UniProtKB/TrEMBL annotation:
Biological source species: Microbulbifer flavimaris
Pfam families named among the record's database cross-references: 5-FTHF_cyc-lig (PF01812)
Catalytic EC class: ligase
Lineage, opening ranks: Bacteria, Pseudomonadati, Pseudomonadota, Gammaproteobacteria, Cellvibrionales
Needed cofactors: Mg(2+)
Protein name: 5-formyltetrahydrofolate cyclo-ligase
Catalytic activity: (6S)-5-formyl-5,6,7,8-tetrahydrofolate + ATP = (6R)-5,10-methenyltetrahydrofolate + ADP + phosphate
Swiss-Prot/TrEMBL keywords: ATP-binding, Magnesium, Metal-binding, Nucleotide-binding
Protein family per UniProt: Belongs to the 5-formyltetrahydrofolate cyclo-ligase family.
EC number: 6.3.3.2
Family annotation (Gene3D superfamilies): NagB/RpiA/CoA transferase-like
Length: 181
């Protein structure tokens, strides 16, 4: 899946990102949300950072990797400016700014490697999002809405899941919006 999304050329990536941003711009969950977690696209992930300019009245946050012994992501306010610091995976992160508790975000747009229509998500394998939003296992309905962002080619019929996997509420691709739970 990673190779397939990386194989998309720059124009295909740009068009897919624009189509996803357009689809999200009419998505009821995003329209209701005030505090939104985003991600910095890497490795062929769909780019939805254009939402920051499209919705200046909303507050957007980028994930910041934890330092041991803290296993959860932090989300730091991002205003759409360039970032110079790169974390241990070479992903740009804000180094300063207002941190917002992850469980108090309204919506988190999450990257993924693969997904299925039921909301199962295959990430990069480190488990950061699953640990950060594990509260949803204990208190269904607690925390933000979790929406995966992907290219349609990343959809598979069925993914295996483990007990610690947190299912997505939905997935948005350039051609479909999936409601999962």
């Amino acid at each position: 899946m990673r190779a397939a999304r990386r194989a998309l050329d720059a124009n295909q990536q740009r068009l897919a990102g624009q189509a996803i941003v357009n689809r999200l711009s009419h998505h009821p969950t995003l329209l209701r949300a005030r505090h939104i977690g985003l991600y910095w696209p890497m490795d062929g992930e769909a780019d939805v950072r254009g939402l920051v300019q499209r919705f200046p009245e909303k507050r957007f946050y980028l994930p910041v990797l934890p330092h041991a012994p803290h296993p959860q992501l932090r989300f730091v306010r991002w205003h759409g400016r360039a970032l110079t610091y790169r974390n241990r995976y070479h992903i740009p992160e804000p180094v300063r700014g207002h941190s917002h508790p992850p469980e108090q975000l309204d919506l988190v747009l999450m990257p993924l490697v693969a997904f299925d229509p039921s909301g199962a998500r295959l990430g990069m394998g480190a488990g950061f999002y699953d640990r950060t939003f594990a509260i949803q296992h204990l208190l269904p309905g607690a925390g933000p809405r979790l929406v995966g962002i992907a290219h349609q080619l990343q959809c598979v019929p069925r993914l295996p899941t483990d007990s610690w996997d947190i299912p997505l509420h939905g997935v948005v691709t350039e051609s479909h919006s999936y409601r999962c739970r």
